[in-house]
Each structure stands twice: as C-alpha cells, then as structure tokens.
Known about the structure:
Order of helices and strands: EEEHEEHEHHHHEHEHEEH
Strand content: 15-25%
Number of helices: 9
CATH topology of the domain at 2-81 and 165-242: Rossmann fold
Number of strands: 10
Distance between the termini: 33 Å
Structural class: alpha/beta
Amino acid sequence: MLELKGIGKTYKGEATPALDRIDLRVEPGEFVAVLGRSGAGKSTLVRCINRLVEPDAGEIIWNGRAITGMNARELRAVRGEIGMVFQHFNLLPRLTVLTNVIAGRFAGMPRWRSLIGAFTAEDKARAAAALRKVGLEPFAGRRVDDLSGGQKQRVAIARVVMQQPALLLGDEPISSLDAVTAGRIMAYIAELHRERGMTVVLNLHDVAIARAYATRIIGLTEGRITFDGSPEELGDAELRTIYPPDEEDGGGEPITYNR
Length: 259
C-alpha cells in the first residue's frame, strides 16, 4: 500500500506551493491516473513518491515503511521495488538496448557488478525475454541513441519488466509520442498491471486515455486534490474543476478526449 500524508513541496523562488498538504492512499493493484493542467503539481507528486523530488513536509509510506527519512542505502533498496517511466525515457544513450534493460536490476545486484557491467547469463536471458515482450529483441545489441522515441519508450517498459517492481510510477510517459505509439505504450503498461497485479500511478494529459485505462482518477488543481473517483464519475463539471479557466491564456487548456 502507498500512502501520502500531508505532502507539501514549494520550489525555491516560488511563492505558492507545487503541492499543498496532499493526503492520498493507493491500495495494492490500483491503476491511478493523475490529471491536471501544466503546473498543477502532477510531476512533483509522482516524483516525490520515490524522492526524485524531496518533499518539504509530510510523510510517504510504502508497504509500512516511511520512504521520507530513509538514508541513501535504504532508498536505493526501496527503489528496487518502484519502477519509473519518464517522458524523456531516462535511458543510457551510449549503451546498448540490452544493457539499458538490465539496468532495471541494478538495485538488486552488487554495486561492483553494475559498475563494470559484469552481468550473468541469467541477467542477459531475462533482459532478452523482456525485450521480446515489447517486440524489440532484435535490437538488443543496438545503441539506444539509434532508436526512435517510441522504441526508446518500449525499452523503458522492458526495463520495468526486468525490474519486476510492485509499484510503477509514470511521469508523462506518453506525452512526447504520436497517437499510435502512445496507445501501444499504454497497452504494455496495462498488460503489466493485469499480469502482475502491479500498482500503477501515472500522470497524464489525455483525459480519454486516463478514462480508458485507469481504475481511479486523481485531479490536481494548484497543488491540491480536487477530484478523486472512478473514470465513470469524471463528468464535465469535474473536468471544469480540474481544468479551470486561466485568465492569462484566455480560457484554459483544451481538454483532450481523443488523440
């Protein structure tokens, strides 16, 4: 179980908080989509969970352990249970696809092995199987920087398969992809969710995709939760609360129902 208690975050130089006393409980096996305007706090929320962003206040608890307050060694261990898919892939561009997938196991192997690339035959076989799952096994020996954006994100998904985390976080994992590729990536994530009973928390811009895949939707507005319910409960009135008009842009962001 994942629980956030009173999480706050204010960035240096900003007058208003990015997150304002967030309380959130996510049950095992839930698929949560986080919606909101740009600047609403979506990325900060997801990145606070594994402390890629340090919260200023509050407590984050994962399976009975407080992630907030862990030292570097403890945090490295718990991150082995938490996968992450980023908007810009966060891969090692000069290394091979296979090595990037094996990186999903770094938290669970001795540091010296990860530093010198001393991977076992089992590591390589598991990575090849993960690449096969996303249709990229023939690319195992290619450098990541030779791949397209969609292929890179599939490598990132294969890395999650390799890691076998109990919790998957996503920071805008499909926002830089075309509609067809975005659909495929979401299908891979949904398959992991179904097959492994993995808890998933993704922040998204696309309302239609959130409705199609999530079991629960969280709406953020100016760092506060303004909606928490099922996709069926997310109507026009609720969307207007999540995406309020902005005087500076003449009426707010368009709400994207379909790509």
